[in-house]
């Protein structure tokens, strides 16, 4: 395979002169090195094209979380896609045995984290987020409800 990559690169004129000829003469004579270099470049290109996974801010208010999650999962989103979006944001989702009143299907998504306070002497407080994904037709998202424990300050 290394020889094939080398031959392909050579046929495309990659070694035809320029900086490659003067700065990397050993690379031209070693098909294993050229294969490794090409593979490393391809990996770098693939890594650069990856989109970052959405991250859920566990320190926001419930109202801000609901707005952010509704942007991620607008009404009408297929439930499988909504659950996948939530899991990519760090939640664990599962269907409920009994749907919420007025809905055919409900899913519960949760994420728990340790809240590191700004005061070094205070002990960390676990924060549990629960998000309900409800569907009237058992296929698409109809309603999203987010809550956290402990409650927001002032609630």
Q: Give the helix tally.
A: 6
Share of residues in helices: 25-40%
Q: Within the largest sheet, what's the order of strands?
A: 1-2-3-4
**Helix/strand order:** HHHHHHEEEE
Give the distance, in angstroms, between the N- and C-terminal Cα atoms.
64 Å
> What does the main sheet amount to?
4 strands, antiparallel
**What percentage of the residues does DSSP assign to strands (E)?**
15-25%
Task: List the uncertain runs.
Answer: 1-10, 12-24, 32-42, 44-52
What is the β-strand count?
A: 4
Based on CA inertia axes, which overall geometry fits? globular
Determine the mean pLDDT. Answer: 73
Computed Rg? 26 Å
- SS-based class: alpha+beta
Task: Describe the protein.
With 155 residues, the protein is α+β, with helices and mostly antiparallel strands. It contains six helices and four strands; from the N terminus they run H-H-H-H-H-H-E-E-E-E. The protein is globular and about 40 Å long. The termini are far apart. Mean pLDDT is 73; it is low at 1-10, 12-24, 32-42 and 44-52.
């Amino acid at each position: 395979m290394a020889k094939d990559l080398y031959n392909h690169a050579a046929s495309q004129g990659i070694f035809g002169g320029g900086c490659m000829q003067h700065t990397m003469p050993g690379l031209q004579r070693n098909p294993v090195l050229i294969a490794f270099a090409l593979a490393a470049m391809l990996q770098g290109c693939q890594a650069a094209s990856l989109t970052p996974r959405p991250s859920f801010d566990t320190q926001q208010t419930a109202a801000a979380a609901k707005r952010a999650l509704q942007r991620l999962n607008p009404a009408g989103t297929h439930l499988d896609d909504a659950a996948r979006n939530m899991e990519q944001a760090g939640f664990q989702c599962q269907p409920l045995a009994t749907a919420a009143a007025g809905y055919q299907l409900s899913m519960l998504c949760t994420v728990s984290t340790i809240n590191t306070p700004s005061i070094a002497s205070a002990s960390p407080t676990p924060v549990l987020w629960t998000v309900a994904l409800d569907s009237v037709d058992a296929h698409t998202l109809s309603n999203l409800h987010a809550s956290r424990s402990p409650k927001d300050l002032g609630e």
